[in-house]
Amino acid sequence: MPLPPDQVFYVSAPQINEWRDADAAVIVDVREQNEWDEAHIPGAILMPLSTFDPTQIPDPQGKHLVFHCRSGRRCGLAAEIAVTAGFKGVIKRMEGGFLAWSAMGFESESD
Predict the structure, then answer these.
(1) 12: closest CA among 95, 99, 108, 68?
(2) Which among 31, 46, 48, 53 would be 20 to 30 A from 38, CA to CA?
(3) Phi/psi of residue 2, each to 5°?
């Protein structure tokens, strides 16, 4: 099922970093626990695709809702699961995923 073009958008890592710095984004990381442990975006919420439950998507409360994964594929699958399950909000996908984030030198942390 193609995703509705008015509900799911690609957004660049620099734009998402600006939103994060301004506390204007809720970032959902759909990678797996081992990937998260290696490095993740500070303040992101881990919701691995393997156990992804669209009913647990946090309410962004007026902020941008951003999904990301390693390279950009799994966040699309998570968006598709969410939309298919009836999620009505707008979802931004990080273009290039965590690889793009890291390549730009943006802040990350590890567990």
Answers:
(1) 95
(2) 53
(3) -70, 145
Measured between alpha carbons, how far is 36 from 29 in angstroms, rounded to an integer? 8
Q: What mean pLDDT comes out for the span 45-59? A: 97
Residues 6+ apart with CB under 8 A from 71: 96, 97, 98, 99
DSSP output for 10-55:
EE-HHHHHHHHHTT-EEEEE-S-HHHHHH-B-TT-EE--GGG--GG
Yes or no: say if 29 and 71 are a contact pair by the CB < 8 Å rule.
no
The 10 Å Cβ neighbour count of residue 108 is 14
Positive or negative, the CA dihedral 46, 47, 51, 53 is positive
| CA atoms in the 13 A half-sphere facing the CB of 101 | 26
Mean pLDDT of 1-7: 68
Specify whether domain 8-103 bears CATH 3.40.250.10.
yes
